[in-house]
Amino acid sequence: MTTTYFNEMYDGGAVRPPYARLQDWMQSMxxxxxxxxxxxxxxxxxxxxxxxxxxxxxxxxxxxxxFDMFPxxxxxxxxxxxxxxxxxxxxxxxxxxxxxxxxxxxxxxGRIPSRLVYRNEAYEKAVAGFVPPRGxxxxxxxxxxxxxxxxxxxxxxxxxxxxxxxxxxxxxxxIMMRMFPGLFQSNRIEPVDxxxxxxxxxxxxxxxxxxxxxxxIVILTPGHFNSAYYExxxxxxxxxxxxxxxxxxxxxxxxxxxxxxEGPKKVDVIYRRxxxxxxxxxxxxxxxxxxxxxxxxxxxSGGVTICSAPGAGVADDKAVYTFVPDMVRFYLGEEPILQNxxxxxxxxxxxxxxxxxxxxxxxxxxxxxxxxxxxLVGPKATKEQIAVFADRIKADPGNYIAQPTLALSxxxxxxxxxxAPRHVDLRPxxxxxxxxxxVPGGLTRVALTEGSLVVNSSQGGGVKDTWVLAE
Amino acid sequence: MxxxxxxxxxxxxxxxxxxxxxxxxxxxxxxxxxRVIRWxxxxxxGMRGAAFRDGAGDWIESWSLRGPATEIAVSVSGxxxxxxxxxxxxxxxxxxxxxxxxxxxxxxxxEAGLVDLAHAGIEGATGALxxxxxxxxxxxxxxxxxxxxxxxxTTAAEALALGEGVCQDHAHVLIACARLLxxxxxYVSGYLEAGSDMAQEAAHAWAELWIEGLGWVxxxxxNACCPDxxxxxxxxxxxxxxxxxxxxxxxxxxxxxxxxxxxxxAVQQ
Lengths: 471, 269
Hints:
The complex is a heterodimer of chains A (about 475) and B (about 270). Chain A has helices at about 20-25, 30-50, 75-100, 105-110, 115-120, 165-180, 180-185, 195-205, 230-240, 295-300, 320, 325-330, 350-355, 385-395, and strands spanning about 10, 15, 65-75, 140-150, 150-160, 215-220, 240-245, 250, 255-260, 265, 270, 305, 340, 345, 360-365, 375, 400-405, 410-415, 420-425, 430, 435-440, 445, 460-470. Chain A is α+β, with helices and mostly antiparallel strands. Chain A has two domains: about 10-335 and about 405-470, no CATH class; about 345-405, 2-Layer Sandwich (Dna Ligase, domain 1), CATH 3.30.1490. In chain A, strands 3-23-22-19-18 form a five-stranded mixed sheet. In chain A, strands 13-5-4-20-21 form a five-stranded mixed sheet. Chain B folds into two domains: about 1-80 and about 245-265, Immunoglobulin-like (Sandwich), CATH 2.60.40.2250; about 85-235, C8orf32 fold. Chain B is globular and about 60 Å long. Classes of the chains: A alpha+beta (about 475), B alpha+beta (about 270).
């Protein structure tokens, strides 16, 4: 069986409108110039120091993620539809979170099995009954999207906790503008550099009710050994806020304070890049040294806002994912604009049967896994690999979901032989506060190996600049 | 009955600490069957911080203390009027769905011995309430009361294998068995007026099981009864750590020793 893949640049022999002006650019670049530019890009990335692995995939922290200079382009009208779909999904996910920590209407209505919610490890009992400022649990929603046709977009997964990679979106653009200023004159490209202002405004808009001044915002990082530390400091710099570690903060008189050379300074909003279980040893893991003792008591009494809100993870679990289109219908009374990938839950007997019978065609993932590990790509696997994986599924069916192998779209990519189509996905970053905002763009990941559908950087993936053309 | 409580928890450090923060679940629950006459929490040299009622209905108070200090004393004193509710928790406002308490923790993780005990324990039971009573009785029989046999981190499975333990172990074993039978169960910490012969059990713990139609019902396998007028309920959690009346962290590289004195007595009227 041969699958046809949607090529985002070429429709047969014709160039699709978004890429109209890139054809000449591509052809005007002989191999030597391209290699020179590629080397220049690498030097620039090294100089900035952006070498972390995206999405906590592990691997060599000092390795550069390959940057491909060929941009990925959307027309304004294509983007508008995507944008509506992304915002709709972010609204529904937040409505779901407020609901399951409140009355649980969606569970009572029988629209989602209660055990998936209340017995989920990511459901935080400690915040039941607590409504965070403006009813927002997930302030930065990273939604992974793949495209299979001109109008066919599928959501692969939602990231409601602390999606990383936005620094790549910003740096990719910065470097493209430096290296190819001409491209930005001949193409009218929507800017993405408003992201840090929007993020700052979003965070400020969810300051607690007790805050009666311009809110003090900090980014809480686990520290420089964390693979995304670069991004933490990068965002702090861009927003003009302090980057702090747990030990820089303390709790007193019902508030959180930051130690500074001028004495303690009250903190109103914490954009945390550490997991729930490490946030506060008095509420979660008692052995955690990364968090702030007493933080959760201050949070739950309305003295500080934590972004994302503790407990947000129950919305982005891979088993809960199946129900997101239902959330859109249930909370918003709308039809979902973005589709889910059809998903089989191995925990269900019928689904398990189907999955085991069709493993060579399916992608199987662990419910709590990430980064492309613990995953089977049926069409790429050997018989032995499939047999071994089948045993793993049978041993713990509830831990696995399966999806069809998606025909990910391709975008031209510079390779050794010149330019060739490579498969891509997209992660836009939706900001939720007083308003829901989205900069026109996102992070495009590309599978650099010919024929590969795995875009994770740990498995040979790279990144591209993502353009939305102005009208 | 009117119960008077004096409870002092003292942490001593081998070197001065730079400061400490504590989260206290040390206030009697708001529910039918217990009414606070007076209640006072104090941390010597400490500053009161956040105070609120959480989703499980527990009143939580944060305290912090600036160092240097070599000793931190948390003292509680008060009087509570109690009436017998036959163990049923009534008039208690909470927002955590019972199903959450089907979740295992490290302390209540299931093992073969617990499975056997759970299934043998409910043999011949008629109805959910009867099942719960039989289960509590089976736990009391399987784990003999013996102070010092177990420690704070002993799991339900370990205590059962040992056949000995204290109220914490009884509660953990009962909770583990109940969850195995798909009955939501949780750990409750509180006080017990147990007479002078069982003074060490005055800071007490038991379990609550969710009985459809009745709600949460307390069972105390250690004393083979349901909580009555001798009991004061403070708060609940998935296990002992989650329901701990005192959780604290001190800043500094020190060795900590703990001294607890509790007196619960019936007030002569």
